[in-house]
Amino acid sequence: MLTDTAFQPFRVDVHDEEGRIRVAPVGELDLATAPAVEDALRAAFEGPARIVTLDLREVTFMDSSGLRLILHWDAAGRSDGTAFGLIRGDEVVQRVFEATRVTERLTFVEP
Hints:
- By secondary structure, the chain is α/β, with parallel strands linked by helices.
- It has a single domain, classed as Transcription Regulator spoIIAA (2-Layer Sandwich), CATH 3.30.750.24.
- It has three helices and six strands; from the N terminus they run ββαββαβαβ.
- The protein has helices spanning 34-46, 64-80, 91-99; strands at 11-17, 20-29, 51-55, 59-62, 83-87, 108-109.
- Helix 1 links the parallel strand 2 (20-29) and strand 3.
- The protein is globular and about 35 Å long.
C-alpha cells in the first residue's frame, strides 16, 4: 500500500542549529535532485558555519549521483577545514556506501 508521502515532491530543508548547518533532503537523491542538494551544501559551505551535516534520514533512495555529491563535499570539507558529517539514512541508502566501500572514509554522526 502506498502512503501519501510516496507522492510528495523532493525538497531540501536547511536548518541552522546554533551555527551548525544541517541539510536534510527529503525523497530520492538522484541525478534529477542532486543539484538542489548541491546548491544547499554550497551555500552552507560558503556561510560562516564550520560544521555542516547532511541528514540522510528522509532520503528514500540514493544513486551514484548522490554518492558523488557526498564524496565531493567530504573532500571539500577536508580541504577547507569545514567539519562535514552525515546522519545515517535507512538501509537502502547505507547499502550504497557499503557496496562502494566508502563507509570508513566518511564521517557519520549521531542526530
